């Protein structure tokens, strides 16, 4: 699942790079006007890979979810202790 999501997110960017390398006039800079909207889409998809990764880990791994909840509970307990000591 993670590999599939990673591939789907990065495929437009790699496809655009290959198209720009194949086009002699572009110089692989991405400045060709006909790729304008697709360049934005490819950048958004590649960036969304970073956002999707932790979400997929939470959805797929029960151990990851348990460890994440334990971490937040520990931080919450530490915050309550700090508040209690400052008010005394």
Summarize this structure briefly.
It is built from three helices and no strands.
Shape: elongated
Count structural domains. Answer: 1
Helix count equals 3
Largest sheet, strands/sense/barrel = none
Structural class: mainly alpha
% residues in beta strands:
under 5%
The overall pLDDT average reads: 79
Low-confidence stretches: none
Number of strands: 0
Subcellular location: Membrane
Protein name: G-protein coupled receptors family 1 profile domain-containing protein
Transmembrane segments: 39-60
Membrane topology: Multi-pass membrane protein
Overview of this protein structure:
With 88 residues, this protein is an all-alpha fold. 82% of the residues lie in helices and 0% in strands. The chain has helices at residues 2-22, 36-60, 62-87. The longest helix is centred in the last third of the chain and has 26 residues, at 62-87. It is elongated and about 70 Å long. The protein starts with a helix and ends with a helix.
């Amino acid at each position: 699942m993670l590999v599939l999501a990673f591939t789907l997110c990065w495929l437009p960017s790699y496809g655009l790079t290959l198209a720009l390398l194949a086009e002699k006039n572009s110089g692989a800079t991405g400045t060709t006007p006909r790729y304008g909207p697709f360049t934005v889409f490819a950048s958004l998809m590649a960036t969304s890979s970073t956002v999707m990764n932790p979400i997929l880990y939470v959805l797929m791994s029960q151990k990851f979810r348990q460890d994440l909840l334990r971490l937040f509970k520990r931080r919450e307990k530490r915050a309550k202790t700090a508040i209690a000591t400052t008010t005394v």
